[in-house]
Structure formats: C-alpha cells, structure tokens
Design a protein that fits this description.
Layout: H1 2-17, E1 35-42, H2 49-72, E2 78-85, H3 90-102, E3 107-109, H4 114-118
Parallel strand pairs: 1-2, 1-3
Length: 119
C-alpha cells in the first residue's frame, strides 16, 4: 500500500514540476501542448523486475487518478507514460533515456539500479 501512495505522490510532484501552467485549449479535449509526457525506465525483465514491474503498475494507477482529477476539474491536461525496459543494463538504460528524450520527454522516473543511474 505504501508503494502506491509513494508512487502517486511522486507522480503528482512530477506533474506539478513539469509545468501544469499556461492557458487551456478552451475545449474539453487536450492539445498536444497540454500532454505531460513522463518517461519511466525500469527493470521489467531483468534481475530487479519485481521492483520495476511494481513501479510501473503503481505509476499507471497514479496516471489514471491524475487524469481523472484533471477531467473532473475541467482542466485541459493529460498525463502520458512512456515505459521502457532497461533489463538492469546500464547501456540499455542510457539508450532508453536518449530515446525518450528524442520523443520530447523531459521528465523521467527511474532507472532502478545505481549502475544504470551512474551511466
């Protein structure tokens, strides 16, 4: 339970720091400018997959909660997660982060291991 609360809190902080400011579209939908892209690099298939899968699942729940809140409040924002598997390999982690950056993702949660972070 504490992992879900921590993940939701972390995602809320990330969303707020990502710049939920500015003018809305004036419509019920969201424009591309109002999509908050959050990258997740986690070990989904390697030795730390038990942690990575848990992080991914909790962030998916948090994303749904935040998007429901935005909708309920009539705010023209939407959170999208871009999840990448690092397999606990520092080289793969770096490649995945570079891929996310090329997609316009400026906020990244992860990676799981210190070796991946160092790279």
């Amino acid at each position: 339970m504490w992992k879900k609360v921590l993940s939701i809190g972390l995602l809320i902080l990330v969303v707020l720091s990502a710049g939920c400011v500015g003018e809305g579209t004036g419509e019920t939908g969201t424009s591309q400018e109002n999509v908050i892209k959050i990258g997740v690099v986690a070990d989904l298939s390697g030795p730390l997959s038990y942690t990575g899968v848990s992080v991914k699942n909790n962030l998916e729940i948090a994303k749904e909660d935040i998007n429901n809140y935005f909708k309920k409040e009539g705010l023209p924002y939407q959170v999208e997660l871009y999840v990448e598997d690092t397999r606990t390999d520092p080289k793969i982690a770096l490649e995945k982060i570079q891929t996310l950056k090329s997609k316009g993702v400026n906020v990244i949660i992860g990676p799981t291991s210190s070796g991946e972070v160092k790279t």
